[in-house]
User: Fold this.
Amino acid sequence: MLKLFIFVAVVGYVGAISSVLGGIPVPGRRVPILRLFENYAASCRPIRKRDFRMDQLAEIMQSLNAEEVAQKLYNAIFFAMVDIQIERIMGKWYRVVDSKNIHKDDCAVFYFESLGKNEFTSTFTSTQYVLKNDDVVSYVGFGRMMGPDPGEVLISTGHPEDPCPFFPVMVGGVNSQGQYEFMILSTPVKYPTMVLTRDQNVYNKKYKGQVQQLLEKHGFVSPVAALNTRLHFVNTTMCARKSSYYDRPF
Assistant:
């Protein structure tokens, strides 16, 4: 029943985007870079208060040379992204890096579960469990892929502090189950940013140093210093001790 409800919500949401923008991109075709960001902006839910992220996005959309700005932004975000194989992101993930100033909770675990896919499109659920004041809280969102190119996968977490979806901006490694071993999620303004991993021990041994260097090099660690946007690196050992759901199998 939950899957059916979310699937209906996704279909309605995509329909709303279509009415705003005059139709979503045809799956399988490369679309203009600016159009990707227009689709992204249309996927943000309305919020009542002023928000730096929304203001920056609006500024990009309204720029006189919007296409040029969008192209530079696209290159800066998707610096290492290739066509994503959506089935490889399904399953359980641990959050090991986060923008703590946005997400004031701890020990997040994500589950992504497919609702359906074809060659170029996909929909899936996103369920997140976190510790908030030592209580377990869950958030339900959804993801969708509208084409094979970087920027055409959007993940809405359902978190109250995430009015806009995340892009996968980098994935790496493949485990014995054929799943990506880590994934960097971010937004057009590089804030907030999260790093998810399948196995904290594998991540620490094989990828942690590489990922931290990439985040630093490409401006994700502290994209806007004046706003205290610096990334937080999670103490996963503490999470394993405090959280009953942390090591629960999917």
